[in-house]
Amino acid sequence: MDAARAVVELFSTREPAEALRLATHLDTRNQERQEVQRQIVELAARELEAGAQDKANSYVAVIAGEGWHRGVIGIAASKISERINRPCVVLSIEDDVAMAQRAA
After folding, report:
1. Looking at residue 60, what DSSP letter applies?
2. Exposure pattern of 69-80 as b/e (b: 16+ CB <10 Å)?
3. pTM surpassing 0.85?
4. Would you call 90 helix, strand, or coil by DSSP?
């Protein structure tokens, strides 16, 4: 989901057709990112609901998923935190390594 090069090219091009092509590409990538983010938030919400009996005694939510895209777990943590009104940590596990993002 790395689009940094396309962004730099978009801001530096002087050709309208190239700018349109790059903007369309970036918009498509953004829509893909939003869909992945939505899927992670929904999976996390289902996981939280499955453990609803612990919800009343918890001050923070910790949710982990196998292969969740590391580029969107921070945004997902923020969305989940807003939804449940408490801090949230989201972990993506890949090859026995976990990457975490949090939102308060």
Report:
1. S
2. beebbbbbbbbb
3. no
4. strand
